[in-house]
Amino acid sequence: MSDENVACLDTWGDGWARGDSAIIYRLLDDSYLFSGLPNTEPVDKRNMKMFWVGFRSGIEEAGGPKAVSSNFAKFKNVMRRMVEDTLVESGHWEIAGFGAGLYLCAARDGKVLWEQTSVINTNILGLSWEEYSMDDGAKSFQNQYTLNLWRERWSRGATADIVKLQDKDFTFTWMAGSAMEKVVPSSEFFDFFENFKAQAAAAGGPPVGSTDFMTFRNIILTQIGDTTVEIAGWQVPGFADSTYIVGARDNKLIWARVIV
After folding, report:
1. Looking at the predicted structure, is the pLDDT value of residue 120 above 50?
2. What is the pLDDT at residue 121?
3. Structure pTM?
4. Percent of the chain beyond pLDDT 90?
5. What's the whole-number average pLDDT of the chain?
6. Pseudo-torsion of CA 19, 22, 28, 31, nearest 10°?
7. Per residue in 33-73, pLDDT tens?
8. Contact 147, 158 (CB under 8 A)
9. Which of 5, 132, 137, 246 has the CB geometry, 3.0–4.6 Å to 107, for a possible disulfide?
């Protein structure tokens, strides 16, 4: 990872945590675009300052931090990965009293290229883990079919079918970025995942052999060169939930990173 891109995303995160648009704005590439908020058109660099004023005001009115507060956003489950010449960061965001969701952003040459976000649906029981479906007319991506299969096979817990989607050099990083990080090559994935399913069953998750194993939400996709990158929330009912980021190229999975 380039030191300038790491420093860029570190500072960018600090800007969001403080709700300080001046910090964020200094880091934006001229081609920057912010997208994904409901009922909001994508925002470019030229319009970012004006957008931010209304954004902070709207959040305050909706029950979030006051527009002048420097205690604004919190991030967790943050994962980073180099994708070709770009450093990509994914994670979970929360603005107290307002909402939460997932985000995906990218930096190159010490500048933030874009940010994509999604907002988690909530109900009286908490998070809504509704089945995902691509909206009609939504943008399609080079390796989207493969990533759709990835989710469908994970949802069934179909280990052998998941392995068939993997490139020979595929790596699966479990608990990415933590002290418990474990990198699993494709050759060891079958045994790893079968053991994971057994652990989930023993801890109150779906029984071994269940074809209702995992659900997904808040899927974000983007294209970086020849690589399609996806981030989403995952849940094994009764066991655990968190986020993942996965990359696909030439209709094969090339890497995935997961954190709990």
Report:
1. yes
2. 56
3. 0.88
4. 86
5. 92
6. 100
7. 999 988 899 999 999 999 999 999 999 999 999 999 999 99
8. no
9. 5
254-to-17, 72, 175, 249 alpha-carbon distances in Å: 32, 36, 18, 7
List the one residue out of 231, 207, 210 whose CA is nearest residue 219: 231
Residue type, 256: A
- Amino acid letter at 15? G
Sign of CA dihedral 43, 114, 253, 100: negative
Q: Which residue has the tokens 């994971």?
A: 196
